[in-house]
Amino acid sequence: MDRLSALDATFLELEQADEGATMHIGGVMVFDPLPDGAVPGLDAVRDSIASRLTLLPRYSQRLSSQRTGGLAWPRWEKDTQFDIRNHVRRAALPEPGGDVELCDWAADYFSHRLDRMRPLWEMVLVEGLEGGAWALVTKTHHCLVDGVGSVGVAQLLLDAEPSSEPPQATVADPDGTPQPVRALLPNPPELLAGLARTGAQAARAGLHAALHPREMLERSRRLAELLVRDELIAAPRTSLNAPIGATRRFLIVRASLPEIKAIGRALGGSVNDVVLAACTAGLSRLLVSRAEAPPQDGLRAMVPINVRVGAEDLALGNRVSSLFVDLPVAEVDAIARLGRIVKHTRHLKSSGAGLGATAMIDLAALAPPLLHAFLARSLYATRLFNLTITNVPGPQVPLYALGARLREIHPLVPLAAEHTVGIAIFSYNGTVVLGLSADRDSTSDLQVLADGIEDGFAELLEALPAAPEASLQEQRSVPGSYRAALRSVSPTAGTSARARARSAVRRPSAP
């Protein structure tokens, strides 16, 4: 239980392999002012977080070794010098404290790696937002938790009501004797233990294959299909795949979840399909603006999928597989673009394509840590995919911290080596926010992608058939509604007029 899994360790190895890779996830949680109009004090935030950490014992544990390697994975061990003050601090935005200032601050914050000598998470109380709002900005290493797991963690740290009391601890604080930080290679007994564990894993895999031959045959077939389609037939080479540095750009795009669902009902497709279609429109515009012809076969996106069972909802670590989705960036028609994505994602799901990625992860896990780093890099190679697009569904009810209502969450996706752009999508209480993360040096035109995604949503909304007014009211547009903004612009208006309409909804109004 205390030793990292091979998949968890993968995210440490990706950082070790490339100085530009940053393997932490995170987000910006924006809150309304407190009932008295103030911002909570830093001590109050620290006390609130500290009172709940008994529910999350791993958040007060550190790695036994700062690097992977050898024949044993690092373990989680109690940090005897844990101090909440090292993990929760304060910052303030320059005026006027709008989206531009907040995204610029977040880009710099997300550019810095976590200190592996301490528990692998941080949180910053950010003051000075427009209208008296404030934010909690989180950064957690991907080896500690995945996107879906982080939602459960966030719900433990937040409240369902403004006056909720901190939850009572139900998980005991881990009991362990303090141990010194281990060297890169384990000592001889650990070498033998590592070999034994690797042998045991292989034995269990062989036993499972013997007892479930049909399942293993199916997994093998899916793995072969994945390797043929996504490795031998490589993802196209574009400017999205280039060497990256460690500094980031960060922008957000807002959309309405009821409107996205309305598009899916009217035109076909899931929420994820509609969002992927809007992202495809933005990526197409980005390539065209760089004088690159969008690949006819599309860009390939790695779309993580949750494989947790109900009992693992609050489990830390990673429980994910992946689908590799072709995005038709050469398709100019919005409805046709969505239709091609729907057809492709349905085929991937019905064919069990996720089993292939899972089989590849399981196969890599059988290798000892000394060899696993090479396999880990192959799982995130540019031959497999051009960018990551991850969609994490959040709670659809209001949440609170210290009595203040959580307004929205801006999500972050990590960037692996030679992947210059990543898109994270998070839905909460009727609002969808896309967090666009990019390498600073190679992607000075990230705003082009943001504008293209906004227009991608707008094109799909304009394609909706006319609906009775009562039906439109049921859709319950939230602040940032594209439909409301575009109604005020004539269908024949020029690009500049439509851009002004977009900018009017890009920033939410104060309550």
Mean pLDDT across all amino acids = 76
Number of separate helices: 15
Helix-strand pattern, N to C? HEHEEEHEEHHHEHHEEHHHEEEEEHHHH
How much helical structure, as a percent, in the residues? 25-40%
Proportion in β-strands:
15-25%
- Overall 3D form: globular
User: What would you say the CATH architecture of the domain at 6-157 is?
Assistant: 2-Layer Sandwich
Structural overview:
- This protein is of the alpha+beta class and 511 residues long.
- The chain has a domain at 6-157: Chloramphenicol acetyltransferase-like domain (Chloramphenicol Acetyltransferase), CATH 3.30.559.10.
- The model is unreliable at 167-224, 307-319 and 468-511 (pLDDT under 50).
- The protein has helices at 6-17, 42-50, 99-110, 147-157, 188-211, 213-232, 257-267, 271-289, 334-350, 353-365, 369-379, 446-462, 469-474, 482-487, 495-506, and strands spanning 24-31, 61-63, 76-78, 88-92, 121-127, 134-141, 248-256, 299-306, 320-327, 387-393, 400-401, 404-412, 421-428, 431-439.
- It has a six-stranded mixed β-sheet, covered by helices on one side.
- Helix 5 crosses helix 6 (213-232), helix 6 (213-232) crosses helix 10 (353-365) and helix 8 crosses helix 12 (446-462).
